[in-house]
Structure formats: structure tokens, C-alpha cells
């Protein structure tokens, strides 16, 4: 789990009448239920007014059933007490299934793909290297740091391509999950 807002965990409804609704989970205790005032408001008759809680604390995300009538299910097992959520976990509350996404728990470096495309890391800061006689000026360090290239129009094009590619992969994965698991 990460402290950056864009890396906060998300609960996304994957089945039922609210399919597609997403809830970003901030730090602290969040209530899940169908009563007004719930942090994650799920309008389903089989969801209790205060069905469960989810708490982000000390790098962990805990899901707790609060004595709901129909129970809280984590990865097809009824939850007794609380369970720790991990990226990709499935949660069932009443007629709804939710998926837990934790972008901050990714096993890879978020910028690794950029670094791979941009080549070796920049040399440490210091006086500029002398130009080599007969070498073009661009070869003397035009790609001094990956962040410099990302800020250029070419860098924005690469970012856009990576973003579109990532969205296509995500959409394909979600379609596969829907067809196989749905």
C-alpha cells in the first residue's frame, strides 16, 4: 500500500446492479453498507445497513464483517472476524461482488517501462563532459536524464503510447476475467 492518492486501494463492484462503481479507500476506517452515511454505499437489499468495514492502517488493509445478516465472503470463504486484503481479492456482500485493487502493491517498479525505453540512467550531476571532436552535440548527453526526455513532445508520445497499451491490456484482462470467472 502506498500513501500517494493515485496509489490508494480501490474497491470496484464487478457484478450485480452496481457493476462498474468504484470506491477509492483513504486511510482509516471506512464503513460498507446500504445506509446513508456509509463510505462505500451499496444499494442492495441483501447488504446490511452497516455490513462491513475496511481499514487502512500501518501498510495493511483489513476487511471486517460487522455482524451482517448474510455474511461477508472473501475469496469464496465466509469471513469470521477480519481478513487482510491483497491486490485482486474478491469480496461478496449480498448479491454484489467487489474486487480489491491495490496499485501501490505492484511487484514491479512503476517507472521501469520508461527506464527500459530510455536507456541507461543519467550520469551523476557534475561539470558537463567535454565534447568529443567530430561527434555530434546530441551524443554528448542529450538524454542526460529520463525525466528530461519524458518532458519533451517525444516523451509525451511515448507516455501516451504506454498509457493506451496499458489500458488495452487492462481491458483485455478484465474481459477475460469476466468471461472466465463471471
Question: Your description of this structure?
Answer:
With 182 residues, the chain is α+β, with helices and mostly antiparallel strands. Helix content is 23%, strand content 26%. It is built from three helices and eleven strands, in the order βββββββββββααα. It has helices spanning 112-118, 146-150, 153-181, and strands at residues 10-15, 22-24, 28-33, 40-41, 52-57, 60-65, 72-74, 77-78, 82-84, 90-93, 96-101. The strands form two sheets. A six-stranded antiparallel beta sheet has the order 2-1-11-10-7-8, with no helix packed on it. The chain has a five-stranded mixed beta sheet with strand order 4-3-5-6-9, with no helix packed on it. A hairpin with a 6-residue loop joins strand 1 and strand 2 (22-24).
Elements, N to C (H/E):
EEEEEEEEEEEHHH
Largest beta sheet: what is the strand line-up? 2-1-11-10-7-8
Count of helical stretches: 3
Low-confidence stretches: 109-116, 135-155
Largest sheet report:
6 strands, antiparallel
For the secondary structure, the number of strands is: 11
Gyration radius, rounded: 23 Å
What class would the helix/strand composition place it in?
alpha+beta
What is the overall silhouette? globular
Which percent band covers the strand fraction?
Answer: 25-35%
State the end-to-end distance: 27 Å
The percent range for helix content is 10-25%
Average residue pLDDT: 75
Provide a quick synopsis of the model:
The protein has 182 residues and is an alpha+beta fold. 23% of the residues lie in helices and 26% in strands. It contains 3 helices and 11 strands; from the N terminus they run βββββββββββααα.
